[in-house]
Amino acid sequence: MPTLSEMAKLSTDALQAGVFENIITANALMPFLSFESMEGNSLLYNRENALPASATHQVGDTWQDTEPTFTQKSAALQIVGVQSPLDRYVLQTRSDQQSQEAVLFSSMAKSLGRKIANLIITGDPGTTTTEWEGLTSLLITDSRLLMMDDGSTPSTITGSETELTLDRLDAMIDMVEEGLPDGLMMNKTMRRKVTALSRASGSGVVMDQIDMFGHQVLTYNGIPIIVNDFITNSEQYENSGGWGSSTATTIFALKFGKDKQGYTVLHNGPVLSPDIQQLGIKENKNENLYRMVVYIQAVLWSAKMCAGLAGIDSAA
Question: What's the number of domains the chain is made of?
């Protein structure tokens, strides 16, 4: 429970009123994300597996029937939420300049947003059943992680961390079909590495800045770079039993949204306006109890619209 001294910091004179945030909450990924509302708690969808076979014929040929095949996939919503108390004494006596309830909701929303942003990368229902599949898990399942050391796309991650090369980065980008990806997502360490490699004589890489969503965004050969520090520099990949010292990180090439058959966040209810529940007064304490919840899942409609370059040595 927050202490009275902590709450007193938020009850000040009018000049100092307001929460002075020293935690950076801006997430460069969020403006790119595509959200899709769904009914119920589970979605079945068909992913194209094989096309009907075309052939050449002459007059009078007997034609063979061929049919497309599909793989049925499912996605069940998961519950992500936070629960926090607020002392009723504080609520009544320390709300002279600003609402203690509003301050609490702001902190809860910030926590919830960060958890969602983290799970978009690291979600692994194979390890924690209440999580949805993050990008790393989705791409491992579909063998869409290109390994930095040998250029393979294994379903079980093996190998050694290897220093980034632009040739391998370009090969991963080329795995994304139907045009360039919407963005290259990486952490700041990899952005510095890509920038340094681009400066090398003869690299041929063009890194410009463009205006997107009211901000200047760096591009790699015309592809926006999305900085996301929830991508760790010590990646522990799912099924990576033979992984080495783990100074590994990943760069993702992504298309977003159902129209592009790319990465999409599914939700029931207004995911950007979470369900705020006032649970009443706790029986054994003089506190109000609040809960903030979203019901959420993520899918990759077509495996060919996203890829990742894994096992990049972040320490090199």
Answer: 1
